[in-house]
Amino acid sequence: MGKEEEYVSPKPFLKWAGGKSKLLHKLRPLVPSKYDHYIEPFVGGGALFFCLCPHDAILSDLNSELMNCYRVVRDKPEELIRFLGSMSITKESFYAMRMQNPTNLSDVERAARLIYLNKTCYNGLYRVNKKGQFNTPFGQYRLVKLYNPPQIHAASTALQGVMLLELDFEPLLLSYAHSRDFVYLDPPYPPVGRWSDFKRYTKEFFTEKDHIRLAKVVEELDNRGCKFILSNAMHPLILKLYAKFGKIDVEAPRYINCRAGKRGNVSELLITNIECYEGTPLPTHQIHGKQTDLTTIHIQ
Ligand SMILES: C[S@@+](CC[C@H](N)C(=O)[O-])C[C@H]1O[C@@H](n2cnc3c(N)ncnc32)[C@H](O)[C@@H]1O
User: Fold this and answer.
1) What is the pTM for the complete model shown?
2) What's the mean pLDDT in 171-199?
3) Can you state the angle between helices 77-85 and 149-159, rounded to 10 degrees?
4) Residue 290 pLDDT > 50, yes or no?
């Protein structure tokens, strides 16, 4: 970092659909004060990671463009900034960039391409077709700031020493999570309502089977003595899969209408085996014969 550069606190360098920046004030008080490793298997934009900046961390996501971008921000921030500085924002260059095959590019070019497409595409929504090609249209933004050098340097500093992987959540957690680790899980949500489309992050959709597979892995984390927080939708399948764990029902801001770009609040769940939320005990076992949401407390 240049001497004249202002200090900024680290935060996500990408806009990521489902990003948790707006929920941090509700998530932060739940995080244990001590743990061995911080593990985030669906890192996306990494809002909670950048808020906590833990020393021993493992971040992973199945999206290889995203994880390449994290590696470049960690290891080659100057090269990345230089490359971003050479890019022009026009509709034509957006579509030319979108057509490129990232596997033909260097790691720095790939990272710059992802940041460029992410900042200039419609709603910052990373979406790919069945062939794995980025297919979100141009966003028509008048004033786009592609990057902010102090922000990239701050993210790079936070990522020093962090293990970055590109694995499915199951092998990742079964291999790396141990007793006394803290795991934050923010998987794609099952669709709730007409405009929810959280299935298309990667060319593999996150199906009901994946949610069932994830619930088994979460059970294993609990058995191993890890503490976890899982964000998810208020959905009957999710309430059933995690019936035995504590739940906090939070209001999260979301786009509710794509065409009008209107925002609204939707109910989301924080599911956890942590016993207390700011002094309020979280019941961790379902009471037989009663509704599962008896284990839920509501936080405004
Ligand atoms: C809701 S986003 C995470 C948002 C993130 N917490 C943030 O603040 O930006 C879900 C992420 O899960 C990733 N993903 C989807 N299927 C996966 C899988 N089977 N294993 C690991 N990651 C996966 C997607 O690529 C996406 O980045």
Assistant:
1) 0.89
2) 84
3) 160
4) no
